[in-house]
Amino acid sequence: MNNKTIGIPKAFLYYRYHILWENFFSNLGYKIVVSEDTTKEIIELGKIYSIDESCLSSKIYLGHVASLKDKCDYILIPRVENYGKGEKVCVKFNATYDLVRNLFEDYQILDYNLEKTKNSNEFLSLMKLGLKLTKKPFLTLKSYFIAKKQEKTYHKKRQLTQAKTLASTKPKILIVAHPYNIYDNYIGTPIIKKLQSMGIDIIYADKLDRKTAKLYASRLSPTLYWTYSKELIGAIGYYQYTVDGILFLTTFPCGPDSLVNELMLRKITDIPMTNILIDELSADTGLETRLESFVDIIKERSDNHY
Amino acid sequence: MGDYYIPIKYLVGSITKCKVLIPPQITKKTISLGSKHSPDYVCVPFKYNLGNFIEALDNGTNIILQAGGGCRYGYYAELQEQILKDLNYDFKFVNFIENNHVSIKSIYKFAKSINPSLNIFKFAYYGLNTILMIFIMDKLSKYPRENMGFEIEKNSFLKTEKSLLNELKRQKQSPIKLIKTYFKYKKRYKKIKINKPKNCIKIGIVGELYSIMEPFCSNHVEQKLASYGIEVHRFTTLTYLLFQKKFNIKRLLRKGKKYLKYHLGADATESVVLSLELAKQNYDGIVHLKSFGCTPELNAMPILEKISNDYQIPIIYFSFDSQDSDVAIDTRLEAFYDMLLQKKRK
C-alpha cells in the first residue's frame, strides 16, 4: 500500500466509468480523489482555460481538472477513439488527454487509450496502465476483474431502480441527455429537482441496457456512428410508448447532439418533446417556465387520455 | 466545395449517363436558406450544404448524392434527408457513407443500378480520370497561390485558372489528354511575369477543410491575403484528404511528439503539426480558419496557442458562421498584415 493519490475530475467520462476506476485503482493500492460537485466557481475556472466556443461540458471538465491542482499526485485522463467499427465517440474525447497535457504542464497524467480498431481495448490498456503503476501482473488482473464485476452489479442495480419507477402511476418523462450533463450538479440536478417537485417520475435514457439500446438505435437511425448517442437514442425507441414525454437536455454547442436531437425531434411525432439547451449564461426563471409549461402539457394530455 | 465540382460532375456524369445539375454558385441567399431550415448550433458546412440542396431541388433535381466522413460530416446525410422530406420535396437521396467513411462499393452499386451498361473496367477508367483531374487541379493551384500577389498584369493568374477549368469541364477526357493539359498549363503559369521580392511575407493557412476549400465560406481570405503581396501556402487539398491522409497520420504524430500523443480527430492533428512545421521553417504568420463550433479544431486551438508562444509566431483565428460581415474580416486581416509587416521590418 502506498500513499499516492489519483485524482479524477468529476465530469465527462467519470459518470460512465467511476465504479470501474474507483475499484480498480483502490485495489491496486492507490487513494482516489474525486473533484467536488460542479459550482459556478468551477465553471469560471474552466472558462479561463478553454476557447469561448467549446461546449459547456468541456469547460466544466477543464474547470474540474484545474480544481484538482495540488490535491493529488496523478490525474486520470483516458483517451477514447472508438469501441469498434462504426462505434465512434465525439472528437472531444479523442483530444482531452493532449489538451490537458498542453494546458497544464506540471500535471502528472495517467492515460489509457480505447481504440478497438487498433487493438487497444479496455482490458489491455488498463492492464498496461496497472503494470506501469505497480509492476504486479496478477494484482492488476485481479483488480481489473473485481472492478469489472462491481461495475456489472452496479448497472444491474440501476436498471432495477429504473424498472421500479416505470411501474409507478405518476406521469413519466424520459430524459435524453449524456450522463455527464444530466448528473452534473450545475446542469442536470436543478432540472431533475424541479421536475420531481412537480410530481413527475424521471426515466433516464442512459440507464437502459446498452446492447438493447443499440438495437433500438439502429432502427431509428441506421447511419449513426456515435456510441454514446446510440445508447441514448435507443432509449427513445424502447420507452416511446411507456413514457408521457421526452426531454432532450443539451449543452451549447454540443456537436453530436446538434444533429441527433434535431433528427429525433423531426422523426418522432406522437409524443410531447422539448429540447433544452444550456449554456453558462442560462437564466433559472426561463428554464422553470419552460419546464412548467411542458409538464402542464403532459398532465393535460394524460388527463384527456385516461 | 470550391472548384472541385468539376471532377465530381465528370465522374457522376460519365458513370451514370445522367444529366448532372450543379447547384448555382453559393450566394448569401444559399446560406440564409440553409440556416433557416437547419438546427441553429450546427456547423456552417451543414447550412451551406442544405442551402445548396434546396436550390438544386428548386431547379428540378431528382437524385441527391451525399458523401463525407470524419467528424460530424459523416452524419449530415441522414438529417439533411429528413429536413428536405419535411419540406415536401420529392427526390431520391443516395448516401455513400458507411461507418463514417465513403465506400467505393456503394458508389459502384448505385451507378450500376442507374446505368446497367457500366462495368467495372469502365468504372475504374472514369475513376482514374477523375483522380487525375483532382491531382492536376491541386498541383496546379499551388504555384498561383504563392505568386498571385506579385503579378505585374492584374488578374492574369485568375484568367489562366479559368481557362484551365474550362478545359477540364469537357466531358470527353483521357489520361493522356489530362497529362498534356497539366504540362501545358504548368508552362503557361510559369510564363506569367511576376515581380517578387526575395524576402516577402510568407503565410500558411491551416484549419477545417470546408472553410479552407470553399472560398465563399471564408470570404475569399486567400485572395485577399495575396492582394496584400503575401505568399500564401495551403496544405489541405482534396488530394490530401482522399489519398494521403490515411498514411500520413503516424508520421505527423511522430513529428509533433512534443505536443501530441494521440490523433486529435478529423483535421486537428494536421493543423497542429503543420503549424509547428511552419513555425520551424520561419514562416511569418499562420491563418487558422474554421467554422463555428467545429469540435476538432477547438481541440487544436489551445495547442496552437502554445506553439505560437513557444516559437513566437503570430496566429490569427477566424471562425465563420452564417452571418459574417466582410468588413470585419477585412479589418482583422489588414491589422494582421500590418503587424506582420512591422515584425518583419524589425
Describe this structure in words.
The complex is a heterodimer of chains A (306) and B (346). With 306 residues, chain A is an alpha/beta fold. Chain A has 2 domains: 5-150, Rossmann fold (3-Layer(aba) Sandwich), CATH 3.40.50; 168-305, 3-Layer(aba) Sandwich (Rossmann fold), CATH 3.40.50. Helices cover 54% and strands 14% of the residues of chain A. Chain A has 12 helices and 10 strands. Chain A has helices at 14-27, 40-49, 56-67, 91-103, 122-134, 137-167, 179-182, 189-197, 210-220, 227-239, 255-267, 284-305, and strands at 5-8, 31-34, 74-76, 79-82, 109-110, 113-115, 172-176, 201-204, 245-251, 273-278. Chain A has a 4-stranded parallel beta sheet with strand order 2-1-3-5, covered by helices on one side. Chain A has a 4-stranded parallel beta sheet with strand order 8-7-9-10, with helices on both faces. In chain A, strand 1, helix 1 and strand 2 form a beta-alpha-beta unit. The mean pLDDT of chain A is 88. With 346 residues, chain B is an alpha/beta fold. Chain B folds into 2 domains: 18-114, no CATH class; 197-346, Rossmann fold (3-Layer(aba) Sandwich), CATH 3.40.50.11900. Chain B is 57% helix and 11% strand. Chain B has 14 helices and 8 strands. Chain B has helices at 5-16, 28-37, 44-58, 76-86, 104-114, 120-147, 156-169, 175-191, 209-213, 221-227, 238-255, 268-280, 295-311, 326-345, and strands at residues 63-66, 92-95, 97-98, 101-102, 201-207, 230-234, 285-291, 315-320. In chain B, the strands form 3 sheets. Chain B has a 4-stranded parallel beta sheet with strand order 6-5-7-8, with helices on both faces. A two-stranded parallel sheet of chain B has the order 1-2. In chain B, strands 3-4 form a two-stranded antiparallel ribbon. Chain B is globular and about 65 Å long. Classes of the chains: A alpha/beta (306), B alpha/beta (346). Chains A and B meet through helix 4 and helix 11 of A and helix 4, strand 3 and helix 13 of B.
